[in-house]
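Hey, resending since the last one bounced:
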Amino acid sequence: MIKGRDGVFEVTVDDQLIYSKRATGRFPEPGEVEAAAEPLLAS
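The structure tokens again:
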């Protein structure tokens, strides 16, 4: 994890952005980040 600033909450897997609070304007729902990461982690 890398601490952000200015309220930025972004999740990356292998330098690929899978969730961005800045882009969506909200925090993720429970399980949303995991669901987005699953295909990348399975390969």
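Residues 22 and 30 are 18 Å apart (CA to CA).

Sorry for the duplicate.
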